[in-house]
Amino acid sequence: MKRKLAAAIVIAGMMVSVAACGGNDGKDSGKDAGPDSWKGQTLTVWTMDGSAPPQWTKDVQAAFEKKTGAKLKFEIQKWDGIQQKITTALSENNPPDVLEVGNTQTPAYAATGGLADLADLKKETGADWTPSVSQSSVYEGKQYAAPWYFANRVVIYNKKIWAKAGIKDTPKTRDEFFKDLDTIGKKTDAEPLYLPGQNWYFLDGLIIGQGGDLVKKQGDTYVSNLADPKVAAAMDLYKKYASYSKAPKDKDEATPQQATIFAKGKTGAFIGMGWEAGTAIQANKAIEKDLGYFTIPGASADKPEGVFLGGSNLAVAQNSKKQSLAKEFLKIALSDQYEGELAKLNGVIPNKTSLQGNLKGNGAAEAAAPAAAGGGTTPLIPEWAAVENTPNPIKSYMTAVLNGKAPAAAAKDVEGEINKRLAQQN
Amino acid sequence: MSVQTEGTDTAGEPAVRKTRIPGPPRGEDRGSRPPARRGTAAPYLLLLPALLATVVLLGWPLVKNGMLSFQNLNPRQLIQHLTEWNGTDNYQEVLTGSDFWNVVERSVVFTAVNVVLIMVTGTLIGLLLARLGKRMRLLLMIGLVLAWAMPVIAATTVYQWLFAQRFGVVNWVLDKLGWHSMADYNWFGTQTSTFTVIILLLVWGSVPFVAINLYAATTTIPKELYEAASLDGAGAWKSFTSVTFPILRPFLYSTTFLEVIWIFKAFAQIFAINEGGPDHLTETLPIYAFVQGVGNQHFGVGAAISFLTIAVLLVMTSYYLRMVLKQEEDEL
Amino acid sequence: MKRSLFGRLWPNATAVVLFAGFVFPVYWMFATAFKPTGDIISENPVWFPANVTFSHFEKAVHADNFWTLVGNSVTVTLCSVLLSLVIALFAAFALARMRFRGRRGLIVTFMLAQMAPWEVMIIAIYMIVRDNDMLDSLVPLTVFYTMMVLPLTILTLRGYVAAVPKELEESAMVDGCTRVQAFRRVIFPLLAPGLMATSLFGFITAWNEFPLVLILNKDNEKQTLPLWLSQFQTAFGDDWGATMAASSLFALPILILFIFLQRKAVSGLTDGAVKG
């Protein structure tokens, strides 16, 4: 019996030790004594899929490592499930030191106390940040993130297919655009437009174009505004666009990545960010020479369609033990040199007007620029981020309308859910 | 080919029992035992690792989960490690909403439909296995084992491909069979069609376990019993109800119990197929708890729902659990 | 018993149809993985991969850290299966062969433990692991997977232990063995097939698990294959060739293991256990 007992005890002991100890493996020590302690440390930076082009990452890494003697590790994150991932990460002792946070979600994270105050960085390097783009990272008067880049959607089209359909010029008005899509549908075997049913950023742009908004204030709280006829008008436009596409009505533009579909060369156009062209080229090198861009046309030639001004901020985790190193990274990454390089490589709007010269010659950026003035964002309130959680009720609304439901009725269906999320206490 | 995973049957006896003749299975006769049990501590020591593991790895999370269910726990509290008790607010929020009861109803119906389908199909296939010749049996067995062994995540991916709107083979077949409206059908667009795919996936993956084990159990039924039955003039159905079924009853009970648990808890299959969509309409309780808790970052409410989930599962299996309690009592 | 031609035919016909039904999804996974993209997205399905290509597999394996993830998955799965078998064997022996106070309660406890809905407890588990500073480690994964399969393993093994005729053990002891020796020389060999069969459940559970590893291990180097597979799908979108190649790679070890262990379990059981 003895041996068996011994074994039992060993196992029991194993379980206990396994459960109770084992901490501290691979954790960095918690000192932050400024520049002297940098050497040998590793700074972890989370960027979102597609945000940071490889060339930029490489250059910034080299500059950072040379200047500080510390190592820099970029980790690319997927959009899917990112909110939960950031929330849990910010609660940890050893979070990513710097992270990219979407501008619509920044107020919510600022309100959680998980982001460090960047007042000194703002003082040092942020004096000439464009106020409108820096706005999303200010919460209760404090700077919780640094504006990184901004972008709005454009039409990315396949020149070869358009030429095949006999179209000479890019459309200047919405009606011309629809007519061109008709022509492509008739004269080629290509799908005129790839637009899945849940590209809600595009819808948001259309709503902004109609002068509407996603939420309205009712007393002290925000509530859904989807029932607004302006939203319904925007949704009707969306439906018209979607009728040119065979894309699934219940998927968004990232599942599957619309650029990879476009890259197959059988799609006339899609509505996307400038950098998505890069994704397409990565999937199929041959598509590069056929790529073209134009501004999403509005009702008349002088006023382009409304757009959602997407963008990202860089924030430092409050729990990071490498605050000074993280700020040093931000100084380098946001310096004129690298901020300019990012704008150039990705065709995104930089955080200072003085750097916009970098966009010259970039087709996507030049197409995006005219619309930016009429752009807008989702409501910059901390309550907003919850609405975007999966399953996003706005997406449900879109799919319902595309499947034939009246916009008003579909709005009614999701209102309760949106209001519940907007009322969610933090 | 006897995988006796049916060890959980009522009396803890495997269905394999050559020497015994029908009659309701009872615990093995424990009267005549060698005087092997010296120290009374021995069984406890043997059970110690298992108990410790259960307490630390299951008990602790359960207690923690229980505590969270009485807290207001959102990203801010999670990030700042704050503990904000809010009494029974979470439970009130869940129980007074209409969502929860809809989901409970859906989960119960979903579980019932699946378990009935699985048990009936599994039993029929198990009996078929017993009738087949050696070669055909091996063939069918291989098919069953492959389906059984297919890891869930791989299986859900394959089903998504089979039922894909574009180029999915299912739509192609339906189209060729003359059902042309199905040529470009989006299976994940409505509640019924999404559930159809999920149920197919679950039944396909679960039937082999029942069929193979049931077949294994039938091999232990002595031939003489059937001979005796046929001498009494019993037909196929009669010999099934008078011989096969009584012997297999404990096995069927325990397997049904396991399937109820597995189906009710099924998470990856439902979540990976369509994340509980469209419009939350295929959310069963575990998915609902996950979407509300983790997805919506309303962690306290999620914890409350998960406790209610456990409660519902307990109610659903209480009949069987009571039976086990009684049986084990008789045994001692 | 005499049967008509029809009586002999229909079971075989049904068996063939059923075989096709059960095998088809598995077959289609492998077939798609080997087909060139043109054959995958064709208006009429290509039933047999005539032009075999390995490019999808190359793409699948090319993912960052693929081999690290394979290593992690294998480690975590093997460790948790072994750990649960050892712990369960002790418990099962006590529950099947010994009489003691609280036995009934324990059996019911393990049955209840079997019901634990792990996916909905992950925040609680996350907070425990986080507060004990054990994130980004394979250890918590291993022990929690062990616990996920432990109850069923105990209950199943209990059946196997009970199935070994007590007389064998007794006669061994009459021959002068101690109880421990009797267990090791007589019972254990007879249990081996049972252990193998039982381990299948552990393998499939641990190999598949993803909600827990998703929330516990953010470090790419500490993740496991299910995460790779699920991210692969979003990354490659409707590239079904690559997705099916990844699924095939993921499923293959378990498929092989099942077929192998199934046969072992059979021969063991029929040759040994029930003979006595």
Automatic annotation (TrEMBL), chain A:
Residues 1-19 form the signal peptide. One of its GO terms (cellular component) is ATP-binding cassette (ABC) transporter complex, substrate-binding subunit-containing. The keyword Transport applies. InterPro entries: SBP. GO terms for biological process: maltodextrin transmembrane transport; maltose transport. The keyword Signal applies. Gene3D superfamilies: Periplasmic binding protein-like II. One of its GO terms (molecular function) is maltose binding. Keywords: Signal, Sugar transport, Transport. Coiled coil: none annotated. Belongs to the bacterial solute-binding protein 1 family. This is Sugar transporter. The lineage of its organism: Bacteria, Bacillati, Actinomycetota, Actinomycetes, Kitasatosporales.
UniProtKB/TrEMBL annotation, chain B:
InterPro entries: MetI-like, MetI-like_sf, UgpAE/MalFG_permease. One of its GO terms (biological process) is transmembrane transport. It comes from the Bacteria. GO terms for cellular component: plasma membrane. Residues 1-37 are annotated as: Disordered. Belongs to the binding-protein-dependent transport system permease family. This is Sugar ABC transporter permease.
UniProtKB/TrEMBL annotation, chain C:
GO terms for biological process: transmembrane transport. Residues 70-261 form the ABC transmembrane type-1 domain. It is found in: Cell membrane. The keyword Transport applies. InterPro entries: BP-dep_ABC_trans_perm (IPR050901), MetI-like (IPR000515), MetI-like_sf (IPR035906). CDD domains: TM_PBP2 (cd06261). The keyword Transmembrane helix applies. It is a multi-pass membrane protein. GO terms for cellular component: plasma membrane. The chain crosses the membrane at residues 12-30, 74-95, 107-129, 141-165, 186-207, 240-261. PANTHER family: INNER MEMBRANE ABC TRANSPORTER PERMEASE PROTEIN YCJP, MALTOSE TRANSPORT SYSTEM PERMEASE-RELATED. Belongs to the binding-protein-dependent transport system permease family. This is Sugar ABC transporter permease. It comes from Streptomyces filipinensis.
